[in-house]
Write a structure and sequence with these properties.
By secondary structure, the protein is mainly α. It has a domain of about 200 residues: Glycosyltransferase. It is about 50% helix and about 10% strand. The protein contains twelve helices and 14 strands. The protein has a three-stranded antiparallel sheet with strand order 2-1-14, with no helix packed on it. The chain has a three-stranded antiparallel sheet with strand order 3-4-5. A two-stranded antiparallel ribbon has the order 6-9.
């Protein structure tokens, strides 16, 4: 069997039916994300970035795989819910809601905004309806206003004592500018994307250590603190395939080459030589990490790494990238899939690779990383002749 067929079958026969059957709230609208391994909803709160990610996912399936009216209806239903309940009336997006849409947590988290923007841009692309465009552009305004201080008045740090900036925002903005389509002028998109890529390579990439730092000083320097020593291999690998796609879009082979080289280093540094799999967090100086979950193996880390290396192989035919892709595929396929109660994958393993949390979705895991990866991997593998699953 080819990898392309393997991923498409898993996407359409297992993962997407799971979210179609168990996540849709037919009473209040929107989606449930907290679903256990018996397909039961165990919490009804609705987390905005997961609502938005699920809208984007079904809209993207409709846009890129098949114009299935059911998928469009699911996306439209989710978009109606978030536009009605998900913000304060002027597109400041809450972090979470109750089941019926009452706001629970204030709009402190900029990633509620970025994923709202992502989903609304995709909805505008497939429907051409102006209210999606208006909401998306207003949300983008807020994102730009908050770039220097993403948490705004909800920032817990004392101003001026140890100002650091975080890798996650330029990383996510790389993806947003790649996805936002015609909603921004082409030159504006290119300038914004270039600024994010330059920031990542010039300030967050630590060439001496061969890793991407999660936090740096405002000048882009190393901070010898818990936050400054933090290394999240999955974040870096996800960002590298975002930059590869931007490199294709803007004809920047230098971005592609640097992304591939960075990805190879990130994987080497982040791989667990004893038990296999990619660590969640590490301290770049080898100190005990602050995060107690540092040695867990997470679904999204491995799936994003698979996309990264298959994308890198498509663009360079570098055999080392293919070897890393197959190595990580084998780990993910054998550890995160549920062989008994199929459908969506598990998300959280202990260091040894055993299931740690018996959930298929929760506060941080929704209809996004698994189906997005399966779709991307199906598309990428389909471009490579003779890319068959090893026995």
């Amino acid at each position: 069997m080819t990898y392309a067929d393997l991923y498409k079958n898993e996407l359409l026969q297992e993962v997407i039916p799971f979210w179609e059957h168990y996540s849709i709230d037919t009473k209040y609208g929107g989606f449930f994300s907290c679903i256990d391994n018996q397909n039961k909803v165990f919490d009804t709160d609705k987390f905005m970035w997961l609502q938005c990610r699920q809208i984007w996912m079904f809209a993207t399936l409709y846009d890129e795989l098949e114009q299935n009216k059911k998928w469009l209806s699911i996306a439209e239903g989710g978009a109606e819910f978030i536009l009605k309940y998900g913000h304060d009336g002027v597109f400041n997006w809450y972090f979470s809601l109750t089941q019926n849409g009452s706001p629970l947590i204030a709009p402190y988290n900029i990633f509620s905004y970025t994923f709202a923007c992502l989903s609304l841009a995709k909805m505008y692309k497939i429907t051409n309806e102006e209210h999606y465009k208006k909401a998306c552009l207003k949300t983008l305004e807020h994102i730009h206003q908050r770039e220097e201080n993403p948490k705004g008045k909800w920032n817990k740090s004392v101003e001026g004592t140890r100002p650091l900036k975080n890798f996650a925002l330029p990383m996510i903005l790389c993806n947003l500018y790649n996805e936002i389509g015609s909603l921004l002028p082409e030159q504006t998109k290119k300038e914004k994307a270039t600024s994010c890529v330059n920031e990542i390579f010039d300030q967050f990439w630590d060439s001496e250590r061969g890793i991407i730092l999660e936090n740096v000083t405002l000048e882009g320097q190393f901070s010898d603190t818990f936050e400054g020593r933090l290394f999240n291999p999955g974040h870096g690998l996800e960002a590298m395939w975002f930059i590869m796609e931007l490199g294709q879009q803007y004809n920047r082979p230098d971005w592609i080459e640097k992304s591939v080289n960075c990805a190879l280093s990130l994987a080497e540094k982040g791989w667990d030589q004893e038990f296999e799999g990619i660590f969640y967090f590490l301290d770049v100086e080898g100190h005990p990490p602050q995060q107690l979950e540092w040695d867990q193996k997470l679904w999204w880390v491995h799936l994003e790494a698979m996309i990264c290396f298959l994308k890198a192989y498509e663009l360079t035919q570098n055999k080392a990238c293919l070897e890393w892709f197959e190595k990580i595929h084998n780990y993910a396929w054998n550890h995160f899939k549920d062989p008994k109660n199929k459908g969506e994958w598990y998300g959280y393993l202990n260091r040894e690779g055993r299931v740690l949390l018996a959930l298929k979705g929760g506060k941080w895991k929704g209809c996004f990383h698994v189906p997005r990866a399966l779709l991307k991997l199906h598309q990428l593998a389909g471009k490579q002749k003779g890319l068959n699953v090893s026995s």
